[in-house]
Amino acid sequence: MNIKTIDFLGKRQWAYIFSSLLLLVSIGSLATQGLKMGIDFTGGTLVEVAYQNAADLTVMRAALADEGFGDAMVQHFGSSRDVLIRLKPDETVSSAELSAQVVAAINKKTAEPAELRRVEFVGPQVGDELAEDGGLAMLYSMFGVLIYIAWRFEYKFALGSVAALIHDVIITLGFFSLFGLEFDLTVLAALLAVIGYSLNDTIVVFDRIRDNFRLLRQVGSEEVMNTSLNETLSRTLMTSFTTILVLIALAVLGGEIIHNFSVALLVGILIGTYSSIFVASPIVLALGITQKDLMVPVKEGTDVDDLP
Amino acid sequence: MQNRFPLWKNLLILIVFLIGFIYALPNLFGDDPSVQVSFSNVSTVETAQVQQIEELVKQAGMTIKEVETGNGNILIRFNDTNDQLKAADLLRDRLGNDATVALNLAPATPGWLRAFGASPMYLGLDLRGGVHFMLEVDMDAAVKQAEERYNDDVRSALRDAKIRYQSVSQETGYIRVKLRDEEDTNAAVAVLDKDFSTLNIERPNVENELWLKITEAEQKEVKKFALAQNITTLRNRVNELGVAEPVIQQQGNNRIVVQLPGIQDTTRAKDILGTTATLEYRLVDVEHDVQKALQGRPPVGSRIYYEKNGNPILLDRRIIVTGDQIVDASSGLDQNNSPSVFVTLNGIGAKKMGKVTSENIGRPMAVVFVEYKVKTREVNGEKVRTKEKVEKVISVATIRDAFSKRFQTTGLDSTTEARNLALLLRAGALAAPVDIVEERTVGPSLGQDNIDQGMRSVMVGFVLVLLFMAAYYRVFGLVANLALGFNLVVIVAILSMLQATLTMPGIAGIVLTIGMAVDANVLIFERIREEIKNGNTPQSSIYAGYEKAFGTIFDANITTLLVALVLFGFGTGPVKGFAVTLSIGILSSMFTAILGTRMVINWIYGSRRVEKLSI
To answer: Which segments of the protein form a coiled coil according to its record (chain A) (predicted)?
Structure first.
């Protein structure tokens, strides 16, 4: 082996400190600030309008207040010509009339009529259900992963990868909480995709660790894992790099609606790449993985031989 | 021989590519703005009709691109939206009530492609613009309405059996029957037990009183019926609105999803979908005095209603006909130029109306407009939603002579109200009130923006990855790029074949797949590099690289697929779209990145002596 090997596991206490710090900040922010939930989860009404010229928000706010929409949140969305109006879910007006009333109210005062771009109304009950389904989806996917890896590898690997996943999810959520980004259904989807991606990374590393445990019999666990991490390092970085490339394209060019989605993926994949090296493997090591755990004859090799 | 595919494998890959290419192709042709005309009473369109419509449009100076017929529809394609909108307005005016005119974006897939059954991906509402509603059916109201019906039925059953009762009244959750004595009570139990198997008869600790409760099974049945009936009615209403390709689906036990692509006037759509408005025809009680009724108890057979101007009026409790018995309705102006609705009754309704009007010439009859409205009130800081039955008398007219099947109703405020009421009467009443619990409307301009932005980010992301791969892995990178292009074609082809709905998050899923698809190739190529570094020959390095990387790729992708499936199972709307493209992307990337690249690498390096690999 002529490439320089990096002693990842030797420096694991630094990784522990770094991860603990990130987790602490994330959990702290989630506990104090919470997440800025989108209307998908809270319920409420959202109206997006567009103008030819820059829109004056003060005029619009006043116009809405005049019509009894005093608690409406009005803000620019993407550009100064696009405006987003949010209304709390507990309006006494029926949903059917709400968006029309809002547009009528602002059209009374603004210089040009607004073009209605988008209306979203989510009843409070539906919001609760969506939140519940999202939480369940997260739990089930983690559980599925746990079982699959325990079956294909070993339970210590399963615990290591799920710990890394929880790490990734908490830190991504923490990022959203800390920077006050809105958490909606698309961000939830992104988070689940992060779980998938981070797992992908971790499994590639684990796969190599398993191979090397069988190959390098005279070497200690820590060294085997270090070698494996080094061998897969260029792949880990390459794949993350290409994925991050397209995600940057998506975040910059994809438009406002999926902006937060792209940001969640970007953050999640950065963290996921880090965790597959610095979190998943050290935990497996800490759980006391030995050669013996993997010596059970597992037959993957035979059933894939005839495939390319 | 190492690194050579048997012929069948090469052919298989090439055939998949060819099929993928054909089915992905329709997506390049875009859409034609078009107008879809369908007739409610005919299933096949006649050539004369088509010619007549074609003439109409041409005379008005619009250029038609193509006219097609099929499925009882006439589809007229135009070159631009201007002509399309003008033609739609024109046809709506000229064709009258029997025809439904809807705007549509028809795929401009050439005929030879359509012969393969190839059609473009179905664009979601966020890309083409439109409205998505989720409606919740008020099941409590459905049961309450059933109780109301039983209330009347029980009364007439007792009357028919000549059992004298003190009162039959509807309480919350049961119907209370008060009788005079033990004997009557027993007789009533016997009659009710025989006639109403769907009611549980309870004898509370009150003398000579019976409580009738609808059985669990029947309640379930009532709810099921209400949902099914509402879906039918909504479908009728949507058809009346003139929407091409609407989606009306049951979701869960009490919800209905309605998707109307390309609709512009969302307020009207909401009004039409959500309203429970219907008409009732009742005789006016002329024997009793309204003022007295207002002060004391109204007479047994009558109830107090209010006219539009607020005047109270006494109407007979018994309904002559209800909206259910109306089979057709159209709006127009009467002799005095006031908006009115022309109504046609079905056989039963017509018979009853004929009987009542012939027996009551000279007596006034009232038309009651019935609607359920949702009100939100604040009770102890909590919002409570209540349904209110709003009944107003829209017209009172003296019966001049007997009529039965067809007649007109006046007293409507505007032509719009008349038009909407006619539409609602035609489409039928909702069996139970509905509530909009979710709405997502995307304007057409935003839809187009989303498509543009989505496509641009796919392209830019794609090109960036191509450049990077070519720079880093040289010849092998170029091969991986080929596979990536192939992968994109296959994803689009599968989405088109399945007619899956492409949404904005779906596009994001494709973008993400592009990023992740190279992963398999990176894994393989890194392995090959390692093998070379370990001193293996180029040929055996290629072989071992593919061989050893496969298990890893398989495990990694299966777990991602697992997550995608969970996403699909739990997701709604945007999440589902993302999960679909992600799953398809994972599967197709495994095929293209492993088999596709291997084939090309074999062509380049296989079956010959190679000194050095360009990797």
So the answer is: none
Q: Do B508 and A261 touch (CB under 8 A)?
A: yes
Nearest CA in chain B to A303: B551
CATH of domain A44-122: 3.30.70.100
Smallest Cβ–Cβ distance between B566 and the set A144, A235, A305 belongs to A144
**Is the CB of B446 inside 8 Å of chain A's CB atoms?**
yes
Percent of the residues in chain B that have a pLDDT greater than 90, as a whole number:
17
Q: Give yes or no for a contact between B49 and B43, defined as CB atoms under 8 angstroms apart.
A: no
Q: With an 8 Å Cβ cutoff, are B462 and A231 in contact?
A: no
Cβ atoms of residues B196 and B188 within 8 Å: no
Label residue B382 by pLDDT band (50, 70, 90): low
**For domain A9-36+126-293, which CATH number applies: 3.30.70.2470, 3.40.1390.30, 1.20.1640.10, 1.10.10.10?**
1.20.1640.10
Q: Distance, in angstroms, between A270 CA and closest chain B CA? A: 14
End-to-end CA distance of chain B: 22
Please give the structure tokens belonging to residue B332.
Answer: 């127009």
Q: Strands of B209-214's sheet, edge to edge?
A: B165-171, B174-179, B209-214, B199-202
pLDDT tier at B472 (50, 70, 90 boundaries)? very high
Q: B-contacting residues of A 136-175, CB under 8 Å?
A: 136-137, 140-141, 144-145, 148-149, 152
Tens-digit pLDDT profile for residues A227-258? 999 989 988 998 899 889 889 988 998 888 88
Q: What is the edge-to-edge ordering of all strands in the sheet holding B326-333?
A: B326-333, B339-345, B406-409
Query: What domains can you pick out in chain B, each with its CATH number?
Result: 7-26+443-606 (1.20.1640.10), 31-108 (3.30.70.260), 140-219 (3.30.1240), 275-440 (3.30.1360.200)
Q: Are A145 and B456 in contact (CB < 8 Å)? A: no
Q: What count of CB pairs under 8 Å joins A to B?
A: 249
